[in-house]
């Protein structure tokens, strides 16, 4: 009786549920590179290379440990190109009677897995993914009966449950749950930025880079230089480097943006966490220890831990709570096609060009660039959510639908009508000017709204409020903005709306 243990590309953890209780004498581990997973959106070249290299290294490690392994490479002659067909081929060739998998990160793949038992006439066991700190069922129970879901309350429960940054008597360390107010400093030019680790290139990585060059030449993004960790050992080097050399300054400049500096003081750990090379609890514990040892201040450590113990778990909970129809929501009825400059980076808006260049070169841009630059533009210009979500899913090396969709549709686009965020993250160019140096080198002027060289974000911001007045006017967190809009003379409001219409036309014509 052969038991097949299936490992997906983002399940590269030695402790993954599907490998629990494995019997190396009878069981077979299967990992497969398939065209469908690499192209259902046209993933960034670096994302494909990162995953394939990490999958191959992981396979090699399992084989070294004595596991029988069926590793299907993308260019193997018999490769049938998708997970279902490859599972079917393995079953046919090996006489498999039972398949053990871990729940996947996408509804699409879960639906696929649910067909396998009927299709192939075998037992299929889909195990809970216990790499996450809150199971889908636990989140559902937490969310039940709550009229409004807010991350902050969920986060506090997670702090208590995992005893992270907690003091005797159940008090949060430092007497406060959240130090976010201390984490909004504008960028400081000349502040020395930390170096980042580099990793030795393996034969596996070189082979994968050549494969990606050959097979995905049309995909977005630059492949080389390639700097990602691709093994657990390398990912741990990234983690320790961050905690020892970067974390202490993570908090202060968490929201800042600088030209030519995609990373600043961010951890760059999301790709490793999401693929399974790092586990969320070990990351949080190491960060907490740095604070307890006096090596990093509490505002930095709390802010960092909140992202992982709070936001990361919360968005996953929302995804599974709201799917499958979540992906189709469009609460603001936004319908503008995604402008081509999201792919080409060719726009005179320096902030957008910069964020897209970081994305193209590194398959990365940090949270505030994703939310307040490319996301904010998509929101206030009324870009169609499906297309925007597809872009975010394709271009970032850490993107899987469970985390991308709530962040994009919910947080950035307010497409879920407020399930994720209590108000739309709409902002004018003045916010970007305050938090970055982008405007210094821009053709547009962040202080102007209607003149020829006015920053397009300004008129689009007011136009967004006006356009969505019926849907958003009742939101108390927007009351101040609507009051300011209403205080303006009618003629000024008309000029702003004309300017917004002109910017949208320029956007459609490729002239923005
Ligand atoms: P840091 O700033 O160092 O944060 C530490 C860790 O916290 C991250 O590694 C990540 O694991 C976690 N984290 C932080 N914010 C979030 C968040 N909002 N949701 C979930 N986890 C979070 N994150 C992804 O992992 N995959 C995505 O596809 C993704 N898409 C996004 C799309 C949009 C529109 C927005 C606004 C955010 C998105 N995020 C996504 C969240 C966040 O931007 C990234 O996790 C972060 O930028 C990764 O960089 P980092 O590892 O340097 O993070
Ligand atoms: C993202 C991705 C890519 C590019 N390629 C593969 C692959 O060839 N084989 C595989 O098992 N998984 C891959 N993945 C990750 C899956 O798309 C991922 O498991 C689902 O998106 C669910 O999170
Ligand atoms: Fe972006 Fe406006 Fe600043 Fe230009 S002026 S960088 S478009 S915010």
The unique ligands bound to this protein are: flavin-adenine dinucleotide, ligand DLZ, iron/sulfur cluster
Specify the overall morphology: globular
Q: What is the radius of gyration computed over CA atoms, rounded to a whole number of angstroms?
A: 24 Å
Under the CATH scheme, which architecture of the largest domain would be assigned? Orthogonal Bundle
**On the 0-100 scale, what is the average pLDDT?**
95
CATH homologous superfamily of the largest domain, by name? DNA Cyclobutane Dipyrimidine Photolyase, subunit A, domain 3
Compile the SSE list and pairings.
Layout: E1 2-7, E2 27-32, H1 35-39, H2 45-64, E3 68-72, H3 83-94, E4 96-102, H4 107-120, E5 123-127, H5 136-143, H6 151-162, E6 166-167, E7 171-172, H7 203-215, H8 232-246, H9 270-275, H10 280-292, H11 298-322, H12 341-344, H13 350-362, H14 367-380, H15 385-395, H16 401-412, H17 429-435, H18 456-467, H19 469-472, H20 479-487, H21 490-508
Parallel strand pairs: 1-2, 1-4, 2-3, 4-5
Antiparallel strand pairs: 6-7
Bound molecules: flavin-adenine dinucleotide (FAD), ligand DLZ and iron/sulfur cluster.
